[in-house]
Every structure is written in structure tokens, then in C-alpha cells.
């Protein structure tokens, strides 16, 4: 379970490396700057959520919310 920005960044980095992508290649894939990927993988807590989710999707991570009230 991912509980903080550092763990999320580590998961992104691990998945990216498993795919053989550089940080630059991932940045280009999500139309972002390489600096964003560097900061995201370093666990910067102020990373933009939309871009962070795009990065997760680009490396094949599937995010699931749990504990939500039933409708």
C-alpha cells in the first residue's frame, strides 16, 4: 500500500525502470518536463496530481481507491 509521496515516487521509478524508460522518455510520454519526473520520483509532495496520475498510467500502474462509502 502506498501511503505517502515518497512511496508513490518510488513505485513510479521502479515501474519506469522495469519498462526500460528514462526519466526524459517518461516526461515526453506524458507531455511534461523531465524535472517533474525527477521531483515526482524523489517524493516531492507538491507534485501536480494530474501529471502524477498520467505518469502512473504511462508506466502501467493501476491506482485503486479503497474505503469509499457505498452509493
From TrEMBL:
Q: Domain HTH cro/C1-type: where?
A: 12-68
Q: Which GO terms describe its molecular function?
A: DNA binding
Coiled-coil ranges per UniProt: none
Specify one Pfam family.
HTH_3
Q: Give the matching CDD domains.
A: HTH_XRE
Q: Which InterPro entries does the UniProt entry name for this protein?
A: Cro/C1-type_HTH, Lambda_DNA-bd_dom_sf
- Where on the tree of life does the source sit, at the highest rank? Bacteria
Protein name, UniProt field: Helix-turn-helix transcriptional regulator
Q: Which organism is it from?
A: Novosphingobium aerophilum
**Lineage of this protein's species?**
Bacteria, Pseudomonadati, Pseudomonadota, Alphaproteobacteria, Sphingomonadales
Amino acid at each position: 500500500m502506498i501511503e505517502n509521496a515518497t512511496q508513490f515516487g518510488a513505485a513510479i521509478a521502479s515501474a519506469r525502470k522495469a519498462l526500460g524508460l528514462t526519466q526524459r522518455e517518461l516526461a515526453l510520454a506524458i507531455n511534461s518536463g523531465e524535472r517533474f519526473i525527477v521531483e515526482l520520483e524523489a517524493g516531492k509532495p507538491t507534485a501536480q496530481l494530474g501529471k502524477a496520475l498520467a505518469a502512473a498510467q504511462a508506466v502501467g500502474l493501476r491506482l485503486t481507491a479503497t474505503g469509499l462509502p457505498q452509493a
